[in-house]
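Re: your question from the hallway

Yes, I did run it. Sequences:
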Amino acid sequence: MIYEEIRISFEELKSQFKRVLLKERFIEEQAGLLSQVFAENNLSGKESHGLNRFPGFIDSVRKGFVKKNVEPEKISGLNAVEQWDGKSGAGPVNAILCTERAIELAKEFGLGCVALRNTNHWMCGGTYGWKAAEAGFALISWTNAIPLMPPWGSDEPKLGNNPLVIAIPREEGHIVLDIAMTQYSYGQLEMLKLRNNNTEFDAGFDSQGHLTKDPLEVIKTKRALPIGLWKGSGLSLVLDLLAAMLSGGNSAYQIGAQNVETNVSQIFIAFDISSPEIKEHALKIINGTIEDLHSSKQIDSSMIYYPGETSGRKRKEYLKDGIPLNPTQWKQLLEM
Amino acid sequence: MIYEEIRISFEELKSQFKRVLLKERFIEEQAGLLSQVFAENNLSGKESHGLNRFPGFIDSVRKGFVKKNVEPEKISGLNAVEQWDGKSGAGPVNAILCTERAIELAKEFGLGCVALRNTNHWMCGGTYGWKAAEAGFALISWTNAIPLMPPWGSDEPKLGNNPLVIAIPREEGHIVLDIAMTQYSYGQLEMLKLRNNNTEFDAGFDSQGHLTKDPLEVIKTKRALPIGLWKGSGLSLVLDLLAAMLSGGNSAYQIGAQNVETNVSQIFIAFDISSPEIKEHALKIINGTIEDLHSSKQIDSSMIYYPGETSGRKRKEYLKDGIPLNPTQWKQLLEM
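Structure:
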């Protein structure tokens, strides 16, 4: 933190988001859902997609990229797979409703897939993993995005950072992986640049084509490093293709041609793990695996975490003690 | 290549594999299927899991880790999700049959998931992606494995390299991603060590805890780098958990406790993309995306490939001109 943080309760933050959304003429239901998602992102420590992103979201609504008060519509279905049209509505609204629908399909078929087209930025992908896990379902979900990462061997951005979410419910704390295909996001690089800090590991290529930890260089060359180098480049491509194919929606190159990130494609695959064949065994191997992980020999006495563990702890702490916020951003919200 | 390679036809290689398998008392059907998979791995340029691996496979059969002539058995099913027991049978036999079963489920439900337990090493994961793509289906599939990679923040191997396969059918050449969770496999590191070569990018940590390209150091410290660092560490963990949970099979820590890599867990999720709502649009966006990718500005005049493109080219070339093989390994096969 580079500011003296203040602490605001989850309910207070949520009610301020909701006040602004209602003022922008969102209907009660959508304002409630959106304020919940934005406030939960701060609650989970995902500052980048909570209060920090809210004014930008309102701006997208005013500019008309994000349509108010529309609901996703089912276009077609083949039993356990359904295509839905997000009608350029609010990303978190569409994503929450499609997560719920995937869960319904999973109850009926064992697993269910909703492929959503024409939707908008879902903010923090982990939100939908938490949502499914809270309902007792495992989830695999991803989104495509505007191109910002070059394919391996190129210096021209063609691939999205396409966050991939995998969630597994667990009573003592859900396991929720949420990883973008760039090693560091441009948001993180911008913040490090402001503080004159380098990344801890290589972030991309500099203008000489060498690996660099200097955020400024990567922002200039636009050659952010994919996770796993050529592997993340390939993974981004196939996630994009599957999302666009199954939803009947836009692929990264079509989103890029719009010059603004809207009408993206997303996938939500939920798994019913409540059957007796799965449940008892699942409990045993999840707990055994987490115990085994936590018992790993630590280097530099750093804790070994499972995905989502830190967010889970922050949720508990911030619910009790309030959410740390940037006071300038909080003041701006109160004035919106 | 460090040897003068010879060229052997696909049919000749396959028939030699089959001869040995029949001599080992595999039944006709399994010998046919296994010889096809091993020969196809060489055909696709995946030398590490073709002829190179065959004597080790036969050894596992003789030692009894891989059971001959058993077939996977359906344990339970919930519509589009089924649990199968591989009964410690030959990995490629189980994986081919479960890919086929996932395709059958996808025909019925739109998508289908087979969760397989108690199976053995599937050799090259791409095989099952190609299989599904040839049948016109998209596939997401992965396996867990014996621990060989430390979780992020530890130097104790707890995670498998858990290859993830994503395949998308395409008439002009299937798109098949096949990525392990380590940036470089121990097989690759061993080969580079023999030649006194370093990896091109960081491969792991040395004994001082610094990143290194020296394969010998990584083999000593056992700190191979996950793809995307902490991200691949988390991805390996959740893939392992899902595979073990859904199949009712072993998780990585249980496989590790066996001290030998057997009775692993695998997932096969097939997607029916033949419906009119999906097919026409899919063709357009796949071709548009691949064109866009191939048009990317190249650095170092290196080609920009989609996942599986190189394998697809090798398959065509090697079918015509024969498969390049290590003459010593070929001679050993003839003498088996």
